[in-house]
């Protein structure tokens, strides 16, 4: 594929690096013309990938956006708390944007971003990758065809997977709300977004329950030190021991945070860095399980469950319609449809595998945005800021419900 568009990357963490690779491999090295990243090693990796000159390598997003416009499109994969300021500044300079989810850490800031984009008149896409996942595309096609009638109820499971939880949401950048955001926003806002998209109606009210149940100090094994490598007696049985998670060269969660070293260097990193801490004795405070119940305008009921406690990752969905039933799983890429009426058909749809993150959806996020910009057709982007703002509102209402212990109506939420 080819594009004449140029890109500026803000934030070269795991997601930013992934989009840089998509640009290099699916389009061409050099498509990304500037990068801003505090970590010098990560910044250098991107610079080498795209042959970016030193004068276009910045330590902070503020430095990059203090320059005259450097590219056509900003890929904004800064930390969640920086989204609002960086996005508003970039729109003010006239950039198009690919904005990592969540939009921002508060509903008011989400509105600021949407308003800034509208004022700029540029095209923006939020990385709600599930809308571009082929499994969900197949589910959407069945629903829109009317084969299972009107939606009555929907159940979705997000299996975070226990090691993923320990890496990202206990030891990692998203384990503490003060550093990032609450779990439903940081991890599951695109689950709520795809449910909103599939039901294709307005959500009226929500109720939510959840807590941090397991990754707590009182659940630490007897005699466990603050760091795994300081002689933990539970090492033989604990699946979260740091060397088990990060000690395999070339694979595993360590690759996403730069723990690619071996031997003494890896040991030193785990003895001093956050990824060597005992998962029961960190400063994490986000929930490790949560349930959201939603009621939509026509009476459709939807439940969403996020849990850390699975041996697999992915999503599983069940949709109950007036004329049929559908279930699907992103990890098996199978959609199964049962029709109750007429010929009472039963179909198993095997969705072909696609390369790339989120089941091949991440490259499609980028491709769709490029096509929308090049054709000046914003309607190609279904994950636009307006749609994303509506699904984010459900997320904020759900978290309010969990904290306040009550049903929250969507019309209660002020957007600014």
What does this structure look like?
Strands 14-13-12-11-7-10-9-8-15 form a 9-stranded mixed beta sheet. Strands 3-2-1-4-5-6 form a 6-stranded parallel beta sheet, sandwiched between helices. With 416 residues, the protein is an alpha/beta fold. Helix 1 runs parallel beside helix 2 and helix 1 crosses helix 12. It is globular, with a radius of gyration of 22 Å. Among the domains are: 145 residues, Rossmann fold, CATH 3.40.50.720; 60 residues, no CATH class.
Structural topology:
Layout: E1 7-10, H1 14-27, E2 32-36, H2 40-50, E3 57-58, H3 61-65, E4 73-76, H4 83-92, E5 96-99, H5 107-120, E6 124-126, H6 134-145, E7 151-159, H7 162-171, H8 183-186, H9 189-199, E8 203-211, H10 242-246, H11 263-272, E9 289-296, E10 301-307, E11 314-321, E12 324-329, E13 334-339, E14 346-350, H12 357-375, H13 385-404, E15 408-409
Parallel strand pairs: 1-2, 1-4, 2-3, 4-5, 5-6, 7-10
Antiparallel strand pairs: 7-11, 8-9, 8-15, 9-10, 11-12, 12-13, 13-14
Share of β-strand residues: 15-25%
Number of helices: 13
The string of secondary-structure elements, in order, is EHEHEHEHEHEHEHHHEHHEEEEEEHHE
For the biggest sheet, the summary is: 9 strands, mixed
Average pLDDT confidence is 94
For the record, give the distance between the C-alpha atoms at the N and C termini, rounded to a whole number. Answer: 41 Å
**Which oligomeric form is depicted?**
single chain
Number of strands: 15
Content-based structural category: alpha/beta
Dominant shape: globular
